[in-house]
Amino acid sequence: MKKKKAFCYECRNDVAYTVKEVSMVGKLKGNEYSYNGRVGYCEDCKAEVYIPEIDDHNLKVLYDKYRRENNIIPLEKIMGIPEMYDIGKRPLSLLLGWGEQTFTRYLDGDMPTKQYSEILQKIYDDPKAYMELLEENKGNLKSTNAYEKSKRKVEKLLIMDGDEPSIIDEVIDYVLDECEDITPLALQKVLYYIQGFYYAFYEKFVFSNDCEAWVHGPVYKDIYVTYCKYRFDPIESSKECIASKLTTSEITVIDCVIKNLSCYSGKILEKFTHSESPWIETRGELSPFVASNRIIDKDLIGQYFLNVKEKYNMLSPADIKVYSNMMFDRI
Question: Do residue 87 and residue 205 come from a single domain?
Answer without folding.
Answer: no
